[in-house]
Amino acid sequence: EKVTERYLGKHALGTTKRGIGPAYADKAARIGLRIQDLFDEKIFREKLDVVLKEKNLILTKVYNRLPLEAERIVREYADRIPTVIFRPTIVVGDSHSGEIEKIDGPYYGFVMISRNLHIAIQKSGHTKCHIAPVDFVTDAIAAIYEKPDAAGKVFHVGDPQPMLYDEFFDLVCERWGKFKPLLKLPPKLMGKLLEVPVIEKTFGVLKESFPYTHLPVEYGFDNMLSALEDTGLRCPTVPEYVDVMIDYFKNHLKPAALKKQRW
Questions:
Q1: Are 215 and 235 in contact (CB under 8 A)?
Q2: Would you identify the CATH topology of the domain 1-68?
Q3: pTM of the prediction?
Q4: Which of 58, 112, 196, 206: CA 20 to 30 A from 104?
């Protein structure tokens, strides 16, 4: 950036010397390094070599400057790149509108309920239903990322007081005005039933989705709660937004697509 300004002389537009201009230029040209490239040293080095090949042509042929060396850049900046790792739980629709791009995760249960085929479901025991609305997840990540002390930490982002899967399923049935499941079958038995193609097709749910409701997963939300303490942000509880989840699903339900497993 400094070399470009010097080259333009009296026609220079001015710069903050923070690399903003070159970053936008690289984005428009679809080159440059992405955030995800920084997490794998091998990929980072490969991408850096490709980028420098083009940048060095400009430096040497246009600006008459010495080329940059990849190894020198890696040594100088590797430890100075602040990294924040976010691990969100299962992301569901917006807590205000219910909008979601893809039907996945807990929404598979909605397919069974919509067909009134939830007389018997898989027993989940004490397995927690770790979900969080997309608007909270994005707002929380944006707020935490701006924290000066966030670098170098891992933040699990989600509902710190999740419901159990069985409780979630019962709540959805109640708010939908549907009957609650009469039987809750052991996972092994449910798995055997779903091996029969006609049963899987009738349910409208992929058999691979069922194991997730009885696999115990734990998140640690202490870092998230501490970082959000002074922001006013909190993850809404499931009862607060489950109605809009249901409404959005019902309004966008396409039976013909379900038959082809394209929900």
A1: no
A2: Adenylosuccinate Synthetase, subunit A; domain 2 (1.10.300)
A3: 0.67
A4: 196
